[in-house]
Amino acid sequence: MRLRGYADLRMKKIIFILILFFAQTVSATVIVNEVQISPINERFIELYNSDSSDVDLTGWYIQRKTATGSSFGSLVSSTQLNGKIIKANGYFLISRNSYSNSDIVTNITLTESNTIRVRDSKGKDVDQIEWGSIDAGKSYQRITAGEWVTALSTPGIANSVSQSVNAPIEINTNTASTQTTPQVTAQAGPQTRVVLAGAPIIFEGKIAGLENNFGRSVQTTWSFGDGASSVGESVLHTYYYPGEYTAVLDVVSGSLTATDKMLVRVVLPNLSLSSGGDNARSFFTIVNHGGDELDVSGWQVASNEKIFTFPKNTILGARKSATFASEVTGLATPVGVIPELRFPNGTSVPIKVEAIASQDPTPILKTPEKTKVVASAETRVAPQAPQYQEASVLNAISDDTPAPPRQESGLWPWYVGSAFLGALALAGIRLTKNTEQKATINADDFEIIEETDDEEPH
């Protein structure tokens, strides 16, 4: 009996070990396969399941750590992954904007020199990767177990540099030259792009497959959907009106052609700019009132013939504000000085004065008063708006600001009350005079009446 009990106990231990091994094996099959960090609205993380069985991601979560951070913070919570399944030999796409094959659409934050890790429902690390800088429109892609490359992004499908994450790289050992039929492909960029009306935007096309073009000329043409077009792989274009446009990239090389397109959503600037402090220490604050993150890299702020340029990867969060001190910018923007906000090419962002602050400077250590200006809500956003760029607060007052309405409708009760009080005063004066006259009595005012016994007393 003891031997049988010992055998049963040993069998249970073996089964338990096998279960743990199987669980670890399942977890190890899910890996990070591709990451894109820029443009902001095209960020995504792609997971891949190399196993022949589906994996339930309930309870799993993804964390992120910056280059200067000391600990990991939440990136994709377990709540977002609850009930999600990653198919066998399939991809799982977590994106900021909705792709046709997105599994989760969420506001993920990814920048240069980040580290992310995937953990299962027991809190065990499944996979972890880190990267440095990645060009806009490209992604960080896994090609072998320990090898990564930067290439054109392929969200939710096999990487452009390999057909399978675990497939070995094929090497052609045939030394004989083989002439292949040339092919060309074009990529306009992300599927959807959000830009500001009035802001010059760089459109950069990607062309591949011309290695065996044998000297043929290549013509690259952009059509922006607003009636404008341009020639070249990398071009600059400005949309002046909000709306949704389809930008098309067309490539022609001899008999070879390729076409790609993207949806461009143009929105009005929804920013406010304010300044404060005094001549010794000052600052300006930019508020993004829009619902999308805004990349202001390369934008400029000008004041008193000095210009400050925002460095790369300066991001204004949706409905967030950022304050820039004079110690950093080198600009003097005390109360009453309106700085000018400019696009990267130097054209002005239209602004108008919303409120006039006191001309008395307030020390920066106290609550400073601000002169606030907001982005113009005009339907058409012109590249230049000098009529709004006055250097003086007094000159910046809008001419069409309506005067406050006169409050006449509520004065008649005061008139009636005043008249009533005046009448009471006059009545009191007359009553007082009558009283004084009656108080003066003379002897002539009395009449002597003789009383007799026969008459009744009066």
- Provide the CATH top-level class of the largest domain: Mainly Beta
Q: Mind telling me the C-alpha Rg?
A: 40 Å
- CATH superfamily of the largest domain, please? Lamin Tail domain
Number of domains: 3
- What portion of residues belong to β-strands? 25-35%
What is the mean predicted local confidence, pLDDT? 75
Strand order of the largest sheet: 8-7-2-1-11-12
Q: Show unreliable segments.
A: 21-27, 162-181, 354-367, 376-380, 382-409
Instruction: Please work out how many helical segments DSSP would assign.
Output: 4
Number of strands: 31
The level of helicity is: 10-25%
CATH topology of the largest domain: Immunoglobulin-like
**Coarse structural class:** alpha+beta
Overall morphology: extended
Task: Explain what this protein looks like in three dimensions.
By secondary structure, the chain is an alpha+beta fold. The protein folds into 3 domains: 27-152, Immunoglobulin-like, CATH 2.60.40; 185-267, Sandwich (Immunoglobulin-like), CATH 2.60.40; 271-396, Immunoglobulin-like. 14% of the residues lie in helices and 33% in strands. It is built from 4 helices and 31 strands. It has a 6-stranded mixed sheet. A 5-stranded mixed sheet has the order 14-21-20-17-18, with no helix packed on it. Strands 28-23-22-31-30 form a 5-stranded antiparallel sheet. It is extended, with a radius of gyration of 40 Å. It starts with a helix and ends in a 19-residue tail after the last helix. Residues 21-27, 162-181, 354-367, 376-380 and 382-409 have low confidence and may be disordered.
